[in-house]
């Protein structure tokens, strides 16, 4: 009888990201195991006294302070990145921060915002935050590329324990921003803090400040008032692939990926960004019409008719106020709808095309590929919630 591998999991479960990682690991083990698990949700501090006695075959853990001491045991390991850059020589699980920042920017741009801001976390001696900085840079680059001023920035000093004072300072910063403003928070926890500061400053969300976070932790997003929009990240699939890589290491395979990406999937839109943030009533009508009807074929003439303008006049307004054409707005909305169905459901791709009003599958595939540089099948394989 073959030995059942014993795997140590030092992954917290207080947030959806950790639970999803664990769910993905469990899914792989159920298909290709069995494995025996030692799981310590409180992390290394609790596990340390017994770690040497476990006689484990492999470990998946966050990049904790005593990481080097754990790795000194010599067991195969996969490191889930959070507080430090990639660990050389090991399999690393990292989030695609560049895509997360870009998706948040594109969503706020589609809402019609002309002023933008970013709120992130500063690093501490105990925990660095490279992911926050990477998301900030990607968000800024996308906004600037769209022709707008670089976003205002506020970095919360996590080392401070005086949250009431920090919240007042954050509220004062929010009050100083031009309105309405589209704001990206580096993650959902940060977004929830921003929205609490908005209350203190009497700034209505989303009319004065539209807020989007990242991680799509439904509990945290639901605690915000109104519920917060967020960029979803496929931690479950990353957990599955982390377990797959660890299995390869434990088997002594040579071809094991050194990097596993937790991909951004799509924007989960909630009330915190349910706004058309433009003063021009014709553009506002046009954007609202596009958003409400993005699951069916739309022409520029349809949008102009809904906005109560000629096509020429509406195009002029769009170029002047938003910096792009009506057709670009239609395509963004349509691609977002396709992406959500490909990522969030297991609907057959042909049915996705029919649901969005495409009668020619080849046209549907070309339309999607022109925007994403991937076929619908490639996109689902890379970003889909369910491992393939």
Protein architecture, described:
The chain is of the alpha/beta class and 388 residues long. The chain has 3 domains: 6-95 and 234-264, Rossmann fold (3-Layer(aba) Sandwich); 97-232 and 267-273, Response regulator (Rossmann fold, 3-Layer(aba) Sandwich); 281-382, Orthogonal Bundle (Arc Repressor Mutant, subunit A), CATH 1.10.10. The chain contains 16 helices and 12 strands. The strands form 2 sheets. The protein has a 6-stranded parallel β-sheet, with helices on one face. A 6-stranded mixed β-sheet has the order 7-6-8-9-10-12, with helices on both faces. Helix 4 (97-110) crosses helix 5 (130-145), helix 6 packs across helix 7 (188-200) and helix 10 packs across helix 11 (300-307). The model has no long low-confidence stretch (mean pLDDT 89).
Topology record:
Elements: E1 6-10, H1 16-32, E2 36-39, H2 44-51, E3 58-62, H3 67-71, E4 77-80, E5 91-95, H4 97-110, E6 115-121, H5 130-145, E7 152-156, H6 163-176, E8 181-185, H7 188-200, E9 209-215, H8 218-223, E10 229-233, H9 235-251, E11 259-262, E12 264-268, H10 281-292, H11 300-307, H12 311-321, H13 326-344, H14 349-355, H15 361-372, H16 376-383
Parallel strand pairs: 1-2, 1-3, 3-4, 4-5, 5-11, 6-7, 6-8, 8-9, 9-10
Antiparallel strand pairs: 10-12
Helix pairs in contact: 1-9, 4-5, 6-7, 10-11
